[in-house]
Amino acid sequence: VHLVESGGGLVQPGGSLRLSCAISEIIFVSMDWYRQTPGKQRELVASISRGGTPNYTDSAKGRFTISRDDAKMMVYLQMDNLKPEDSAVYYCNKGSGNKWPWGQGTQVTVSS
Questions:
Q1: Distance between CA 13 and CA 104 in Å, rounded?
Q2: Are 9 and 1 in contact (CB under 8 A)?
Q3: What b/e string do you get for 83-98 counting C-beta neighbours within 10 Å, with b at 16 or more?
Q4: From CA 91, how far away is CA 44, in angstroms rounded?
Q5: Facing residues of 66 across strands?
Q6: What are phi and psi of 7, to 5 degrees?
Q7: What is the pLDDT of residues 4-53, one digit of tens each?
Q8: How open is the CA angle 103-85-13, to the nearest 5 degrees?
Q9: Mean confidence (pLDDT) of the chain
Q10: Which residues does 84 contact at the CB level (< 8 Å), separation at least 6?
Q11: I need a labelling partner for 89 at 20 to 30 A (CA). Which of 43, 53, 57, 103 fits?
Q12: Cβ count within 10 A of residue 11
């Protein structure tokens, strides 16, 4: 399985971005979005079950929305009201079991 994240960029505080995760195969598993900043471990941001039930960490609750389109083999992360502390490289991966090889991630920078 190959993962390709896209959609990151530079945005001002309060702005929005929509991240996309393209999955190379149709696999019905739960999916997660993670983020990582230099010198820190990758942290979970949001999850979505096979049936589409979302879960969010406290940092993402109320601002981020995770969704999936299995027919297109895509997972999305809509990020609104972005804050400077959201700046990181964002990755997607399966939610349970051994992780697939990580993609290159997509850089999100929130700065005025």
A1: 24
A2: no
A3: eeebbbbbbbbbbeee
A4: 9
A5: 77
A6: 105, -5
A7: 999 999 999 999 999 999 999 877 899 999 999 999 999 999 999 999 99
A8: 105
A9: 96
A10: 13, 110, 111
A11: 53
A12: 18
Nearest to 10 by CA among 72, 93, 82, 103: 82
Which pLDDT tens digit goes with each residue over 72-109?
A: 999 999 999 999 999 999 999 999 889 999 999 999 99
pLDDT for 112: 94
Residue 68 CA to residue 21 CA, distance in Å, equals 9
Bridge partners of residue 11, in order along the sequence: 110
Tokens read off for 36 = 């990582």
H runs (alpha helix) in 2-69: none
